[in-house]
């Protein structure tokens, strides 16, 4: 396999695995945090404003790790520097050969 | 596949590019500034007041209450900065309803600029509250060994703020774009609704995190009580 194929395969597989793990792990964490928040709400309904706000802040912090995985996947698929470099090299080579 | 409104270019002249991010940012600033000016032209403290004044009062007192809940004693000092953060990001997300509009916060430049302004504001408010020496000492607070870790946490918090907002806004726009090519009827509408919800939540999160960072920087440390004298 030449380097173009290796780069393409590696990017595609890594993007898929990154998105997969990046969706599973934060979802588990958020599920646990919401469950604990519901328990706390059931025990102390008066503190619901504080609990809800803290829950949302915590969920946003957990969500941001999922966002990091998403951003890496998007970079691998749409703005991949290695792929761009290899494509630029290939077009320069075929351009020179075609002349 | 357009990753950000940076790539929609309206006008170009040599080095200067007028892309969608700049145009929509300035449009939002115009709407906010002109709207506020128009509403606050004839403020009244009587029972009869315009509905826009009521709306603004609800928004401002709501933000003040949130700032106080987090622990900042004097919300009026910080509400200018924090309220603007919230209103700008919220309006940027809300205007997705308008066709042809891309939220400028879907570009890493805008979110990096907002995160950098928080990065600068936190030490400014901290120094204003605690004095220069007091603020610098807070970096060595649990022990001096924590100094590099505190500095790294400052930088990573800023980076996380920028990437979180950028990722949420960009993913909303991208999901809608992808769905429009697959099932162009019902699902894009549902995803736009979801995008509105996450946009408002992310605006609130950005605002609350900035408030928490400022509260942590301006918290007056209690002086250590003198050790009890054994008699």
Characterization of the model:
- The complex is a heterodimer of chains A (99) and B (231).
- Chain A has 99 residues and is mainly α.
- Chain A has a single domain, classed as F1FO ATP Synthase, CATH 1.20.20.
- Helix content of chain A is 91%, strand content 0%.
- The radius of gyration of chain A is 22 Å and the shape is rod-shaped.
- Chain B is mainly α.
- Chain B has one domain.
- Chain B contains six helices and two strands; from the N terminus they run ββαααααα.
- In chain B, β1 and β2 form a beta hairpin.
- The longest helix of chain B has 36 residues.
- At the A-B interface, α2 of A face α5 and α6 of B.
Provide a compact summary of the structure.
The complex is a heterodimer of chains A (99) and B (231). By secondary structure, chain A is mostly helical. Chain A is 91% helix and 0% strand.
């Amino acid at each position: 396999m030449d380097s173009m194929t290796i780069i393409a395969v590696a990017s595609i597989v890594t993007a898929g695995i990154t998105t997969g793990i990046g969706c599973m792990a934060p979802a588990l964490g958020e599920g646990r945090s919401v469950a604990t928040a519901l328990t706390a709400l059931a025990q102390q309904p008066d503190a619901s404003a504080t609990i809800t706000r803290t829950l949302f802040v915590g969920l946003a912090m957990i969500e941001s790790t999922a966002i990091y995985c998403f951003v890496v996947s998007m970079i691998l698929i749409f703005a991949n520097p290695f792929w761009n470099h290899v494509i630029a090299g290939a077009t320069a080579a075929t351009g020179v050969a075609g002349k | 596949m357009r990753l950000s409104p940076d790539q929609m270019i309206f006008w170009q002249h040599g080095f200067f590019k007028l892309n969608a991010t700049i145009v929509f940012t300035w449009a939002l600033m115009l709407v906010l500034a002109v709207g506020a000016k128009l509403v606050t032209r004839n403020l009244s403290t009587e029972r009869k007041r315009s509905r826009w004044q009521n709306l603004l009062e609800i928004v401002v007192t709501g933000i003040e209450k949130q700032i106080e809940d987090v622990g900042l004693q004097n919300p009026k000092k910080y509400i200018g900065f924090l309220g603007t953060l919230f209103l700008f990001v919220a309006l940027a997300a809300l205007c997705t309803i308008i066709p042809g509009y891309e939220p400028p916060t879907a570009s890493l430049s805008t979110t990096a600029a907002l995160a950098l302004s928080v990065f600068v504001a936190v030490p400014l408010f901290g120094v204003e509250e605690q004095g220069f020496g007091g603020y610098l000492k807070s970096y060595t607070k649990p022990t001096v060994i924590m100094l590099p870790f505190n500095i790294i946490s400052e930088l990573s918090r800023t980076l996380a703020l920028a990437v979180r907002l950028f990722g949420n806004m960009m993913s909303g726009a991208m999901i809608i774009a992808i769905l429009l090519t697959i099932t162009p009827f019902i699902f894009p509408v549902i995803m736009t609704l979801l995008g509105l919800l996450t946009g408002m939540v992310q605006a609130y999160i950005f605002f609350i995190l900035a408030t928490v960072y400022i509260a942590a920087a301006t918290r007056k440390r209690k002086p250590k009580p003198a050790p009890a004298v054994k008699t």
